[in-house]
Amino acid sequence: MGIAAQTLDKKCLWCLLNMRKQLFILRRRILRAFEAKKGAGFEFSATPEGQLAEIIVLAQELVASGQDRSLPVEQRVFAYMPYMHSESALVHVQAAVLFSQPGMEGNLDYELRHQAIINRFGRYPHRNAILGRTSTAEELAFLSEPGSSF
């Protein structure tokens, strides 16, 4: 799925380029960790953060390679969860496409609800407290609304 650079505003383009750079660095670190596993210690997956990064990158590589299409629908839904829970509006564009596949209609509804929150706030207000972020008045009002959480 290609997004023409002309259609992106400068901020979105910067976010996309920054995300690609971060993914490249993360992928390189994971590959080094896998190589290290063959030899000495495999320390990358020894931390929760490292394991989380590994899950996200492996899910993205599964989609990028097209191998996700060979999985049963239930397993694809699981593989796409990092897309649904991203705080990147660009990732949600791809997530909406992924969850639009036949058999994922119920998950598409959840993706569109997640995407609406990101489009409105640029982040998930539900995560603010645990991430040490200050909630805005609008976010606090949203969090008090019925149906604001899943």
What does it look like?
The protein is mainly alpha-helical and 150 residues long. The chain has two domains: 10-65; 73-150, Tetratricopeptide repeat domain (Serine Threonine Protein Phosphatase 5, Tetratricopeptide repeat), CATH 1.25.40. Helices cover 65% and strands 0% of the residues. It has helices spanning 10-38, 48-65, 73-84, 89-98, 105-121, 128-131, 137-143. α2 crosses α3 (73-84) and α4 packs antiparallel against α5. The chain is globular. The model is unreliable at 1-8 (pLDDT under 50).
Give Rg in angstroms: 17 Å
Count of alpha and pi helical runs? 7
Helix- and strand-based class? mainly alpha
What is the rounded distance between the termini? 28 Å
CATH C-level label of the largest domain? Mainly Alpha
Q: How many distinct beta strands?
A: 0
The averaged pLDDT comes out at 81
Assign an overall shape: globular
Order of helices and strands: HHHHHHH
Work out the helicity level.
Answer: 55-70%
Strand content: under 5%
The low-confidence parts are 1-8
Give the biggest sheet: none
Number of domains: 2
In the CATH scheme, what's the topology name of the largest domain? Answer: Serine Threonine Protein Phosphatase 5, Tetratricopeptide repeat
Q: What oligomeric state do the depicted chains represent?
A: single chain
What would CATH call the architecture of the largest domain?
Alpha Horseshoe
CATH homology superfamily of the largest domain: Tetratricopeptide repeat domain
